[in-house]
Design goal:
The protein has helices spanning 2-21, 42-57, 67-83, 91-102, 118-127, 129-135; strands at residues 64-65, 106-113, 142-149, 155-163. The chain has 164 residues and is α+β, with helices and mostly antiparallel strands. A hairpin with a 5-residue loop joins strand 3 (142-149) and strand 4 (155-163). Helix 2 packs across helix 5 (118-127) and helix 3 (67-83) runs antiparallel to helix 4. It is globular, with a radius of gyration of 20 Å.
């Protein structure tokens, strides 16, 4: 009987150690970003411009580019390249990071893969009800963008919108 209890306890301790020590491989970790200076590519600037042209055309405020938002978008674009898939994985970490570091009240995100032009990716987002709703949210005030190429030179996109 004592031997059985010992093995049960050992199994429980082993299980708890396993659960408490493991994290997903490649997980984006929440890291406060206190300062960031971002260099934008021609493609990224064109995406930001096209989103603002669209918002202006439907009577919404233009959004201000915020380097901190783009720096956080960059971490996710790099993550997607590493994983080889488009995702919103770990969005809650980016959300929390922007709440803490950018005084955001609300955060939205669009991701994409494979487009070669700003026109193509923005057009695709606007054709999707879910992505268009993020772009057309009247409460957003700032945004950022990141594009990263994979080994085959295909683009991964992360665009994040915040309300300040």
């Amino acid at each position: 009987m004592k031997k059985m209890n010992f093995y049960k306890q050992l199994l429980i301790v082993g299980f708890l150690a396993l659960m408490l020590s493991c994290s997903q491989e490649g997980e984006e970790i929440f890291k406060p970003i206190l300062e960031s200076k971002v260099s934008y590519t021609k493609l990224e600037n064109e995406i930001l411009k096209r989103v603002n042209i669209h918002r202006d055309s439907i009577g919404l405020n233009k959004l201000e580019k915020l380097d901190l938002v783009s720096a956080i978008a960059l971490s996710h674009s790099k993550y997607m390249v590493e994983k080889g898939k488009v995702s919103h994985d770990n969005f809650s970490n980016r959300y929390e990071n922007l709440i803490v570091n950018a005084d955001a009240k609300f955060v939205g995100e669009n991701v994409a893969f494979g487009f070669d032009s700003a026109k193509g990716v923005v057009y695709s987002w606007l054709k999707s009800n879910v992505h268009r709703a993020v772009i057309e949210n009247p409460n957003f005030t700032h945004f950022g963008i990141s594009t990263e190429k994979n080994i085959k030179e295909r683009n991964y996109f992360t665009q994040i919108f915040i309300e300040k």
